[in-house]
Amino acid sequence: MTDTERILEGLNDEQLAAVTTVSGPVAIIAGAGSGKTRVVSHRTAYAVATDAVPESQVLLVTFTEKAAREMKERVRSLGLGRVMARTFHSAAMAQLFYFWPSRHDGDDPPEVLADKWRLLAPLARRLPGGYRFTPTRDLIDEIEWAKSRRLTPSTYLARAVGRTPPTTPDLFVRLFSDYERTKQRRGLVDFDDILGLTVELLETDQEAAALVRSRYSWFTVDEYQDTTPLQARLLELWLGDRRDLCVVGDEDQTIYTFAGATPEHLTGFARRYPDAVVLPLLTNYRSTPQVLALANKLLASTGSVKTLVATRDGGPEPVTRSFASGAEEEAYVVARIKALVEEGVAADEIAVLLRLNAQTAGFESALAREGIPYQLRGKRFFERREVQTAVRTMERVPEEASGEALVAAVRAEWGRQLGFDPDEEPEGREGRERQATLSTLLAIVSQLALVGEGAGRDEVAAALAERAERERADDAGGVELLTLHRAKGLEWDAVFIPMLEEGSLPVSPAGESEDALAEERRLLYVGITRARRQLTLSWAVERVSAIGKSGAKRPSRFLGALGVSTARTA
Ligand code: ATP
Ligand code: MG
Predict the structure, then answer these.
(1) Residue 282 pairs with which residues in a beta bridge?
(2) Helix, strand counts (H, E) of the chain
(3) Which of 338, 294, 335 has its CA nearest to residue 318?
(4) How far is ligand 2, taken at its centre, from the CA of residue 64, in Å?
(5) Which class for 360: exposed (0-12), middle (13-18), buried (19 or more C-beta within 10 A)?
(6) What is the pTM of this model?
(7) Cβ atoms of 37 and 222 closer than 8 Å
(8) Contacts for 544 with CB less than 8 Å, ≥ 6 apart
(9) Which atom of ligand 1 is nearest to the CA of 285?
(10) pLDDT tens, 409-452?
(11) How far is the CA of 161 from the centre of ligand 2 (A)?
(12) Omega into 506 within 30° of 0, i.e. cis?
């Protein structure tokens, strides 16, 4: 078999068309699991094999570093060892820093502020009144949203029309400008600056632009539905007046609009590039017809015209179940996972997808109790900043407190120091994430404190440290626990999406805009379409809160769109 035959082997006609269209603007707009990412690697290999582009001139842009590594592996297995796969940030940083010394009197490139938190948290704590408890992460989101649109503290008010920042607009602008000033004073740049400064460099410095353009001449962007205006601009500058740009995406999977992404770049591609070839991929290779039927129902409820067409053999019907309590749901999920592993499904082919990071904690301990290995994508619970801060804060609680008095003291201390109120329904993405995290931690503290005669402060602290240690040791492989956001582009044999309740998915039903609700629905769509064969959707009608109170939960409105009956059965 020749190289090109090998590259084209096993592709369907639509994929063949996409893989062999190797020049000019191309948009591959297709549904989940239709082979978009696969087409990117094969198309690249085909372009190199047919001399449409030298290997060294290819730039593949992926959404995450992990996706970049996987993409490099995929093209390597097709015989290409030198193709570059990078995120927008890492490609931009390499360019910006390459030119830095010659454009800044021989200075070294600036230090990168990898995490805005360090700088922003102290500024946030100086906000007046109750605003000092504004979750730093929500302020970061808004700053990133603004910078993804090239807004500055002085243009924000006029141009961010209709936005609701986490504080008053005036306070936010003041904080934004303090942040920028502090950062500059310390000689730091953040990730958004790296994109922004690279765009500026390429817009204003013809020599740098020419050199960058001579480096890469052939571009492909995967997950293009989640690009920000700043990233789209950078891509335009990389391309210059050349034509070899391929974008790949699915507007129904846009899940990062809170960070400034917009699917308009994808859906408007043919308008911006009138000579673009737009190629659909209609056949789904990932999931069984049963899984796809559910995905299609959800899609239809959004008014999307797409339907995913199955090619795989039939499998089991998706399980949709309600439980009397969160504990029962957890026990069911873990028992099902155990059964699947016993049937021979590899543990790392099973995933539990959750709306919030904090929601992994319950499943972590339930899996640990059953001796089922698991791994977390993203930060482990006890390594999260808000958890570590909250644990440290417990040192301020009187040493002699124990049992219920200890739990009450911890709760009061977190209220004073961290603005935590377990009865409150917080606003904002991180507000909810933090609330869920502290509630989970308080529930763990209660569990530990209320054994026997009641455990004391230091005993509880030691038990927490032990759990943190076990979590580190456990995290070696196995069942994957991760958020729906992180699940994008990935797939597993068996997928569990628990906690399908109002207030969880959608995360904040009350006062949420139509746009925000639509994004929640797309998150569920991303989750459902991760499953190859087994899919379990579940919810509980009652959950115990951090302070031990039982509260009724309403099933997620999206279950209705899926045709799932949520009427309570006795
Ligand atoms: P997502 O929208 O979730 O990112 P995608 O469109 O990028 O999905 P891929 O991840 O490329 O889809 O492919 C989905 C699955 O289908 C993968 O396991 C892939 O290997 C498989 N697949 C794709 N095309 C074919 C094909 N022609 N024959 C067999 N399997 C295929
Ligand atoms: Mg993909």
Answers:
(1) none
(2) 23, 18
(3) 294
(4) 12
(5) buried
(6) 0.86
(7) yes
(8) 325, 326, 327, 443, 550, 551
(9) 16
(10) 998 888 888 888 877 777 666 777 788 788 888 888 888 888 77
(11) 33
(12) yes
